[in-house]
Amino acid sequence: MAFRKALKRTAIIGSGAVATVFGLSQLIEYRKTQARLAHVAAEAELRVPFADDFPARQAQLAALQNTEEFDVLVVGGGATGAGCALDAVTRNLKTALVERNDFSSGTSSRSTKLIHGGVRYLQKAIMQLDYEQYMMVKEALHERANLLEIAPHLSAPLPIMLPVYKWWQLPYYWAGIKMYDLVAGIQCLKSSYVLSKTKALELFPMLKKDKLVGAIVYYDGQHNDARMNLAIALTSARYGAAVANYTEVVHLLKANDPQTGKEKVCGARCRDVITGREFDVKAKCVINATGPFTDSLRKMDNQETKNICQPSAGVHIVIPGYYSPDNMGLLDPATSDGRVIFFLPWEKMTIAGTTDSPTSVTAHPIPGEEDINFILNEVRNYLSPDVEVRRGDVLAAWSGIRPLVTDPNSKDTQSICRNHIVSISDSGLVTIAGGKWTTYRSMAEETLDAAIKAHSLSAEPCKTVGLMLEGAKGWTPTLYIRLVQDYGLENEVAQHLVSTYGGKAFDVAKMAQVTGQRWPIVGKRLVSEFPYIEGEVLYAIKEYACTAIDVIARRTRLGFLNVQAADEALPRIVQIMGKELNWSEEQKTVRFYNTLLNEWGKRSAELEAARKFLYLEMGYRSRSEQLTKTSEINLDNQEVARYKKRFHKFDKESKGFITTVDVQQVLESINVHIDENALHEILNEVDLNKNGQVEIDEFMQLMSAVKKGQVSDSRLAILMKTAEETLEKRGPVTVDRSGGGV
Questions:
Q1: Which long-range contacts (CB under 8 A, 24 or more apart) does 725-731 make?
Q2: Mean pLDDT lowest for which of 36-50, 118-132, 470-484?
Q3: Going by DSSP bridges, is the β-strand pair 396-405/357-358 parallel, antiparallel, or unpaired?
Q4: In what residue span(s) does the EF-hand domain sit (predicted)?
Q5: For residues 289 and 515, what is the distance between their CA atoms, to the nearest angstrom?
């Protein structure tokens, strides 16, 4: 089997002659003008069959079943697969796409959220005189500029600081970063610059001051990866592609080629995962864009084929936004084990990662405690000692599987360049494997070029350079003001809707419910501390969301930002979706099958599945395991006495435990009222025995875990401390005022 390396020599204007003629501002304006012209040229020739509304998922499934033959069937709904579908349909090819889970449910939603050329790849290219890696960086920088242009609502330039702690490193890193700017040419987002120690600390006050000599700031792009992936898939649907999530390939269809007599792939047997119904999808060409599962589909074609994908796991964590400035990232170029760690503001939180270790392929990767602690330790190395980096501050964690392309005998995944390959099997299966998020478009272009040539398809040239994605049309940076003025949305909610849906934000606002309050007029939040509103759940269904996980993980990003907040929002999300999708009672109510979470008992099947997702894949288990029955109590005598005194203010009868009734009585005595269900959830977080009460040993374990930083923002700990302080200020409470007595 012949492999064709995917290093397309994309021409980028960036010569010294051009730089001499134009100043920097003129160059930037020239770049924008060229991109706008490319956009106009791309869209002018295209017909948009579904300019108003997308076909419903059932209509898409019907199109898959009833179309006699597609030109192209793409298997895989990640960034690359969606990119292939968009490329194909805009070349006037009859296009289908199937994804066995949800769009962007795999690696494409679990990235570092950067659109970048790869600073470390450029370093390797220079140090090893590797022209191939240099061209990969150059291509990625071109694609970075294009992606920022075609989806401005979902992406933006981000300054990233590289702190320097040794004088000799300053010119070394400066030369490398300047080379990064030069390779980008006129597509350089903004010129990099050097900062003094004082200025660096002014921009990034959390930074460790000791031995800091200065810093270098360069620019890359940042995006909402899952929403970007979805925008690509939805754009392909707008242009007429038949796309369906939760549709898996059971096996490939083959037929004898009348000219050669050889077997050729001619489609796929598919199954609707939701209903179980199977059907055939015929196609002249099948493209395998399944990421880490590349080899699984290749073996459906030929069981004897050798693996070409070596998966690598990358873990990220999310910590509170106060760990980083609002608009400045941080790069640790040399961690304790030689890896690179990014520390980035994202969605008003802070993302830190990633790790890089060989792994097995799974649809449900789980972040490990060892990787979480490694990232936390690296963060500690770069932050001021004044900033206590606590394990309990990890609000979410996830693991993504990178589909690295390598020789099957290679053991060192860190030295692998994330290049991609396009291969065509003897039976005509086209496989696109490897690559990186930023270059999805050029990878798709090359894949379609190869597919058209191999299968003699009649197609037009590629039109995706400059082709605006879903939501980009009508977007402006000040669009949120119109939402506030026209609909009475909160400012934060309006900004969120515009940065998520772009010009389609008005469609979401129309679905928002009236609050019944003076302000905001519309837009009931799913949880108080995040700007996600109930209307987004309804709009998510229009965007092919089929499960509660689709909503918390990919239509909104709540599950990636705070697992506890996502857990709190789930009942309402399930309620809205159940009503809209007519979920049956059987679908809603089952006995939970996972003994790890048996305490939840009978709940909605959707609720249980989503909570299992949060528990295992989004780091809720790792977070909850910081407080266990075997946790060591590490408190001195004074602390033990203080916490016992606090506990007995609630346990007035010296039972040795407290219940919701005990807590409610104390709260009522200080005129604080908390919903009974909410109070039950607060105690349940600490109730390790799950017997409906918090014993004094469990309370001591909680306070010890808080002291060690393993647990933070414990609602029970904060509630009891606040109540104690209020009681001490007010003095003794009489029986009649406390509601006691007979």
A1: 726/670, 727/649, 727/666, 727/669, 727/670, 730/670
A2: 36-50
A3: unpaired
A4: 638-673, 674-709
A5: 44
